[in-house]
Amino acid sequence: MQEAHVEKQAVEDDEQPLVEHIADLRKAIIGSLIFFVVCFIGILVSINYVIPVVTDGNELVMLGPLDVVRFYTGIAGSLSLGFSAPFIGYQAWKFVKPAMTTKESKTALSFIPGILISFLTGIAFGFFIVFPTVYGFLMGIGDQNFEMMITAKEYFSFMLMTTLPLGFLFEVPLLLMFLTAIGIVTPSNLRGMRKYGYLVMAIVSALITPPDLLSQLIVLIPLIVLYELGIMLSKVVYERKWEKNEE
C-alpha cells in the first residue's frame, strides 16, 4: 500500500513540471500573438505612409477590390512579423531557459540583439540592392516586346521572394558563432562543410534571381563572404572558449 502511494506521488511530481511547462508555453504564445496583433493594427492604421515606401514609385494595378485588402494585409502581416521577431525570440528564450545551463542561457540572450540587426541588414540589402536590380532587369527585358502591367500582388510576392530569404541568410555568421559557443560545431567542421555551404548558397542565389550571371553574383558573393565571416567569428569564439577551459 505504501509503495503504491509512493509511485502515485512520483507520477504527480512528474506531471506538475509538465503542466507548468504547458502553462509557460501558453503564456509565451499568447504574449507573442498580442504583440503581433498590436503591430499589425498599427501598420494598417498608417498604411498610407507605408505604401509609397514599399512601391517606390512603381505603377501597379489592382484586378479587384479584394486585391486591395490582400495587398494591405500582406504588407501589414509581413512587417508585423519582422517587428515581432525580437519579442518572439525573447519569449522563446524564456521558455527554453530552464532546460539550459546558466552559461548557455546568457549566451543565447546576448545573441538576440545581434540576430535582429543581422536580419534587418539582410532585409535592407535585399530591398535596396537585390530587389531593384532584379526587378529592373526583368522589367527591361519585358519592355522590349510587351507593355508591362504589374499587379500589386505579383509585385509584393516578388519583393518578398528577393528580400526575406536574405534576412535569414544574413544571420548565418551569428548562428555559427552561437553553435560554436555551445559546442555543437567547431571551425574545422565549418571549413570541412565549406563546399556544401557554397553549393547551397549558389542554389539559393539562382532561385531568387534571374538566370543571368550578374544578378546571381550580386547575391552569391555576399553570401560567400557571410559564410567565411561566420568561420572567422567561430574561430574567435572557439579560441576564447578553449582559453577559458584551460584557466
User: What's the tally of helices?
Assistant: 9
* Helical content (DSSP H or I, runs of 4+): over 70%
Structural category = mainly alpha
**Global outline:** flat
Biggest sheet details: 2 strands, parallel
Please provide the ordered H/E string of secondary-structure elements: HHEHHEHHHHH
Beta-strand content estimate? under 5%
- Rg over CA atoms, rounded to whole Å, is 24 Å
Please, could you describe this protein's structure?
The protein contains nine helices and two strands; from the N terminus they run ααβααβααααα. With 247 residues, it is an all-alpha fold. It has a two-stranded parallel sheet with strand order 1-2. α1 (2-45) packs antiparallel against α3 (65-96), α3 (65-96) runs antiparallel to α4 and α6 runs parallel beside α9. It is flat, with a radius of gyration of 24 Å. The N and C termini lie far apart (54 Å). Residues 8-15 have low confidence and may be disordered.
